[in-house]
Amino acid sequence: MMDEGTELSLTIAQIVQRLKATHLHSQIERQAKECLHRPEIQLESLKEDVRNFLKASGWERKLQNAVYRELHVQPLPSHHAAPPEHAKEPLAYMRKAQVNWEKRILKSLNSMCTELGVPLARKRPAVEQKELANKWNEMGTDEPDLSRFRPVYAPKDFLEVLISLRNPNHDSSEEASAKSHWGLIQVPLHDRDIPQMREAYSELSLTTGQLGIDDHTHVPPDLFESEHIRIGKKVVNEQDSAAAQQYSRQGCPTGLRADLWALILNSTNEPEDVMHYEQLKAGVIHHDLLVDNLIYKDVKLTASNDDYYFVFEDFLYQVLLCFSRDTAVLEHFGYNSATPPKSYIQGKVGVEEFAVVYPPNGVIPFHGFSMYVAPLCFLYNEPSKLYSVFREMYVRYFFRLHSVSSSTSGIVSLCLQFERLLQTHLPQLFYHLREIGAQPLRIAFKWMVRAFSGYLSTDQLLLLWDRILGYDSLEIVAVLAAAVFAFRAENLMEVTSLTSAEAVLADLSTLKVMPLIQIFLFATVI
Amino acid sequence: MSLNTVPCTVKPTVTLQIGDAETDSSRPGVYVIDVTLPIGQTVNIQEISFKNYYTAYVSVRLLRRDGEGAAKWATCLRNHCLMPSPHTEEGSQDYCSVYRQQMLIEPDNVTSVRLILRQPSSAWLNFNVEDIKIHPCLNEDSEWDIPDWLSDLTQVDQLCDLQGLPDPQTVSSSIQQMWALTEVMQTNQTTASIGRFDVDGCYDINLLSFT
C-alpha cells in the first residue's frame, strides 16, 4: 500500500542485501577487477566498459537469474507496522491453527522419543561414523529395525486439521442455500473460476501446442515438437531463467528438462555447491538424528515399494538425510506460516545461547515426504545437483503443501479450489458423492499433498511439474484433481460407497494429464 | 518512513443503519470512526496507518481549520478498496496506510479525521479498523532562523570565472560519490549464515520445547 517508488526501492535494497552475501557477488567482483587488464577497457568510460564486458561474458545474465530467483522467494515488502508473523501468514486464526498443529507434532515426537528411549539427536561414536562413511552409497542395503518407529503424521491427520479450520468472524449460521459450500473446507478464501483461469493459463489452450499432447506419436513432429525443441535448446544456451520459466509452460522436452528446471530454479552446481553438500554429508556422519529413522521408514514404505522409484532408494537417503542438516532451509520460514521446532542442548532450557533448531533445517518429515524427491531422481544423477534442485523446489513450492496458510498456492486454497471447481461444474457428481458419504476431498487430498507424485506415471508427473514451475504456482494441481473426477464422473455416479469411489480412483497411472487439464479448463461449458 | 505519531483520541464507532438500531436484526454495513486531536492542536498529515479487520472500503474525511479559524469537512479519500473481494479473505487483516500523496486534498491544519468503513458482504460478523495512527509531516528547518550572514553568501549563479578549473558542481558530486563508495565498502556486512547447526560441536538433544 506504499507508493510504488518507495516499494520498489525497498525491494531493490532487500535484494541487494541478500545478494551481497553470495558467492556470485565475489565472483562478479573478481571478474570486474580482472577485466581491467583487457585492452577494450578505457579509463574515461570505465563504468560503461566494465558493464559491457560483464554483459558479453554472461555474468550479467547470471546476476539477472539470481535477482529473478530472489523475486520468487522474497515476500513483498511489508508495512512498517506489520510484525514479522504477518509476513508468514496474515490471518490470525490460521496462524493459531498452525501453532496448534505444530504443538501436536512436537508432542508426538517427544512421546516417541521417551517411549523408545532414543534421543532426538546424538553425536555418533567414531566407529559408527567410519561405518556410515563407508556405506554412504549403499545405505539402502541396511535393514535396521524400524518397527518401533512410526511416522509423526500422515496426510489424513493433516486433512482433519484443515477441515476444522474456522474463521471466528465468518457468519456460518445460515441454512443451506445457493451459496453454501458442499465441501469440507469451510474458510472463505479467494479462488479463481474457469474464465479467470483461461486467461491465466492461456498457454494451455486448445489452440496452443503442448508437450503431453502435441508430441504424441500420431502428430507429425514438424507441427510443433521440432520447433519447440529448437527453441528449448536456444533457451538453455542463453541461460535465461525467466525465458526458461515461460518456455516450461508448454512443457519441457525430456532431453532438456534437467537443464531447464535447474535454470528456472537458478540451481547451480558450482564447486561451492558441491562443498556445501559435502558439509551436509559431514553433518549426517557426525550426528545421528531421530528424524533419520523417520526418513528411512518413509523411504522403505513409499518409494521402495513403488515400481518406478525403488531403484533410487540410495539417492533418496543421500538427499533427505542431508536436507535435514541444511540450515540454509531456515531462511524460508520468513515466508512460511510454520515455525521450526526448538530445543536446548545440555539441559539448559531457556538459555538462548544453548538454543538450537531441531532438526537443523526445521522440517519434520511426514509419511510420504520422500515422494517429493523421488521424481527428481529421473533427471539428475549427481547427488549434489539433485540435492540443490530438490531444496529449491521445497522452499518455493512443496512447503506450502503441508502448512496451514492462506496463500493461493497453499494446501488450504488448493483444497478449496478443488471443491469449488467440482461444485460449480460437476454439481450432480458432487451431490451424489456427498450423499453416499464419499466427500471428494477425502480421496483427492492425498494426491494434492504430494503434488501427484507416486500416483501418476513418471512422464506424466514431470509434465505436470513443468507447469508448476512455468506458472510458479501449485494451483494446477487442484485443477488436475478436479479434471480427474470429471474424467471418471460416469463411473463415479454409479458407486454407492466411499470404498467403491476410492476403488474407481485408485489407479491414475494410465491418465494423460495435459489433455485432462486442457479439456477441463478450455472445453467445459460455462 | 514517518514513524512518529500524533497523540489523538479514537472515538467509539458509530453505526449507520436504516431503521431502528435496536430492533433491526440485520448487521450494519457502515461504521464511522472519528479520530480527534486534543483541543486547539492541528496537524499536517503525512500518513494515516491502521490495521484492517474485514473492512472492504474506507473513505476518509478531514476537518480542516482554514485561515480564518473556521473548520470545514472535506473528503480526502473516497471508497478506497481494502478487500478486492469483500466475500473472501484477501486483504482482510492487512496493515494499511493512506499517504498524503494519495489524498484528494491537502491534509494540512487538520483537527479531526473521520473514517467511514463499509463492508457490503453479509459473510462477516464484524468489521473494523484497529490501531489507527496519524503520522504528521516531518518539519523542515522552517522553524529555525537562518542568520543573516548565511544569506549573504554568493548565490550559485553568480560564480566567477573558473579560469580552467573544473566545475565545482561536478567536483563536489564526484567527491560525494567516492565518499558513498567508501561508506558502502565499510558497511559491506554479509547476512550469510555459516551453516553450523551445533553449539560448539554439541548437538545432543533429548526433548523439544514448546513455548
UniProtKB/TrEMBL annotation, chain A:
Domain Rab-GAP TBC: 251-472
The organism's place on the tree of life at top rank: Eukaryota
SUPFAM superfamilies named among the record's database cross-references: Ypt/Rab-GAP domain of gyp1p (SSF47923)
Protein name: TBC1 domain family member 19
From TrEMBL, chain B:
Entry GO terms, CC: nucleoplasm
PANTHER family: NICOLIN 1 (PTHR31239), NICOLIN-1 (PTHR31239:SF2)
Protein name: Nicolin-1
